[in-house]
Structures are given as C-alpha cells and as structure tokens.
Amino acid sequence: MKPFPLIPHALVLTLAAGFMQAEAQAQTNAPALRPVLPRVSPAQEAEAPQLTANYRIVISAAAGEHSLGEISTQTCSASFQISGSLSTLQEAQPDDAAISLRGDFSEQADGTLKLSYALTSNALVPSSQVGNPGTANVQTTYRSTRHGGSGMLLLKPGQKYELMQVSGVAYTLSITPIETWPAAKPKATTPASKDSAEAGKERPSYTERDGPDPEMRKQYESLSDAAKERFRNRMRELFPQIKELPAEERRAQVRKLFDKVLAEDKAGTK
Predict the structure, then answer these.
(1) What is the pTM for the complete model shown?
(2) Where is this region: Disordered (predicted)?
C-alpha cells in the first residue's frame, strides 16, 4: 500500500485563504431585488369595465431636481397594475427601489378621473459590515425596507400628482389619454329636417309624440264636452287618411279639423 501524499501546510493555508477571500467578496454583493410582478386573471380582466380611451400611466421618482427614473404602461381598462425597478439593469445598485402600483379609476362627467390606488416601494439597504473596510475581507449584510401608501384622488388627465414621499424621494403619477374611441367622440349634430320650422327659427320645445302644441292644448281644454267628443270621433275618421303623409302635412290637417270644431263650438252648432 502506497502512502497517501501529504499536502504542504503552507499550501493548505494559501488555498483556504483564497476560498475565504472569494466567499467574502461574494457576500459583499447584495442579493438581487425582485419586484413582485402583478398577475391579473382572465376573470379580473373580464370584470374590469372598459374606458372610452387608451390611457398612458406613468409612475416616476425624483430626489429634488434629480430624476431617479420612471416606469409606464398603457391600458383601456379601469383596473391596472404596474411594477418594476426605476433603474436600468446596467446601472442597478443594491439600494435601488422596486415599486409596485395598483389602481382603479373611472371617468367623470366633468372630464376628471377618480382614482383609488395602492403604492409600495421596496429596497435593499446595507445593515452591517464585518471586516476591515477597504479590503476584500468585508462581509456586508442587507435588509429589506418597504414603504407604502394608498388613497383616492380626483385628478385632471395629463397633470402630475405626488402619491408618496419617502426620505426625500417623491413618487409622482400622471394619467394621460392617448387615443379616444370613436364611440366616445361627440356625435355630429343632425341637420334640421324639411318638415321642421322655418329656417332660422328655433325648433319648438315639443315633439309630435307629445301631442298638440301648448296653444292648441289650451284651446282644447276650453271646448265643451260635446265638442271634445266630436273632435275625437272625427280624428278617428281622419287618421287613416293622413297617417302616411309627411309630419308637417299631418299637423296641418289636424289643425284644420280642430279649428273647424272650435268654430262650431263657439257658434253653438254641431
């Protein structure tokens, strides 16, 4: 049996030191902060009402005059969710914040939007260090910080609103319509029909379905009971003859019949 070769003591110490240094170096890198990605089920999508326009929703962060980044999404649904990191992957730092925003909004009659929202901000920050600063043998631990806010706002489309401010960092939201559905656009006014009042005059505040005009209705109430009954009977006889005529001609025929009954009633004749 051959003897097991002995590894020199100095080599063992060198290898151990190398492994420890590599491990310490690895521990100084903060674990990746993964924002909670929103999940919307098909049932939730079906339940959310559709708005009259596509909206662009932007959530941004700034420390004073310095912009820290923004994330955005587009939707025509009254319910939305958006989350992510404000920094790019190439520039990501351990203390960069991941944000998540969920909201429901509705369009108001005066053009404003009514928004209810919940905003959370999550970041990893150093909590302690073990080792000699400035050397590779430094172990850093991190802790997760979480801030959040919720509320309800009445907002004007296109304007920015501050939702939350934490340690000098302000989180701002804007919702802007980018496309309006044709069904939501104002309908073109319908031109006056030929059988309407004379050009330049206002249309009457009543329609044919409402019955006679106010003046004729007042005159009808002044008729005797016998005259009212006579007018109703003659109208039953006249209607089959005039029902296919244009509206203006129908009204003229009815008025002619009424004036005749009115004159008979005043004269006391049948």
Answers:
(1) 0.47
(2) 184-227
CB 205 within 8 A of CB 196: no
3-state secondary structure of 138: strand
What is the domain partition of the chain in residue ranges? Answer: 30-183, 208-267
Tell me the C-alpha distance between 183 and 164, whole Å: 36
Q: Please answer whether residues 180 and 161 qualify as being in contact, where contact means their C-beta atoms are separated by less than 8 angstroms.
A: no
Residue numbers of the chain with a pLDDT score lower than 70: 1-48, 87-96, 125-126, 133-136, 138, 179-212, 269-270
Amino acid identity, position 37? L
How many beta carbons lie within 10 A of that of residue 166, not counting itself?
15
Quote helix, strand, coil % in the chain, to nearest 5: 30, 35, 35
3-state secondary structure of 175: strand
- d(C-alpha 51, C-alpha 170), whole Å: 29
CB atoms within 10 A of CB 193: 10
CA distance 268 to 27: 113
Strand partners, 120: 100, 148
- Residue 154 has a pLDDT of 92
Distance CA 231, CA 228 (A): 5
CB contact at 8 A, 238 and 257: yes
